[in-house]
Amino acid sequence: MDNPVVIRLAEVAETLGIATLRFNFRGVGASTGQHGGGEAEVDDVMAARAAMAERLPGDAAIGLAGYSFGAAVAARVAGRFRSPCPGAGRAPSGMYALDFLVRAPDPTLLVAGTKDQYCPEDALRRLGDRLTAEVDIIEGAEHFFFGKLFPLGQAVERWLRRWAV
Q1: Minimum mean pLDDT range among 2-16, 71-85, 124-138
Q2: Is 47 buried (19+), middle (13-18) or exposed (0-12) by CB count in 10 A?
Q3: Which residues, 6 or more positions from 135, have their beta carbon under 8 angstroms from its beta carbon?
Q4: Cα 38 from Cα 44, distance rounded (Å)
Q5: Is the peptide bond before 4 cis (omega within 30 degrees of 0)?
Q6: What is the pLDDT of residue 61?
Q7: What is the pLDDT of residues 59-71, one digit of tens each?
Q8: Are 119 and 90 in contact (CB under 8 A)?
Q9: What is the domain partition of the chain in residue ranges?
Q10: DSSP state of 104
Q11: Residues 140, 119: Cα–Cα separation, whole Å
Q12: Which of 66, 70, 79, 160 has the CA that lies 20 to 30 A from 46?
């Protein structure tokens, strides 16, 4: 929730007038519970999504965004919805098996850097092709986007403008 990448995603959405909700998964920060290996965290995202749905107008679209482990969990949740559940994320394809995704929800953005030590560029491009997702590669960015949060925000903003604005 307090990770600079997650904060940047929320800032970009806020500048476009998009409501956001950031939260810690169970066992992270001051949250209660224990890490659930990705399965229990699906329940966390489902609960957060339901909380947003209660507070937004009935016809409001709800998208999911995640960073690293959070992107892998968001992908699992998005896969449960028959209707489009847009998502922006960067699940490190070298760390998490995303084979359960046959096709990404429309629209989907995958972002990584050319120097990401957990998500090689070629692996992300192959995943994007397989899922028919948009892929944006940030030159010189590593996994934590140190010094590259502005270009990350630009990529997400371009994508969000097409989806939500």
Answers
A1: 71-85
A2: exposed
A3: 109, 110, 111, 124, 125, 128
A4: 10
A5: no
A6: 82
A7: 888 888 889 888 8
A8: yes
A9: 4-164
A10: P
A11: 13
A12: 160
76-117 pLDDT, tens digit each: 887 776 444 455 555 554 445 565 566 566 678 889 999 998
DSSP 60: -
Residue 86 has a CB neighbour count (10 Å cut-off) of 21
- Residue 123 in tokens: 């692996």
Largest CA distance in the chain: 41
Its CATH architecture, for the domain 4-164, is 3-Layer(aba) Sandwich (3.40)
C-beta separation of 29 from 2 below 8 A: yes
The pLDDT assigned to 10 comes to 93
Using DSSP's 3-state secondary structure scheme, residue 89 falls into strand
Q: How far is CA 100 from CA 44, 78, 104, 135, 163, in A?
A: 19, 11, 10, 19, 24
Q: Average pLDDT of the chain?
A: 84
Q: How is residue 94 written in tokens?
A: 């070298």
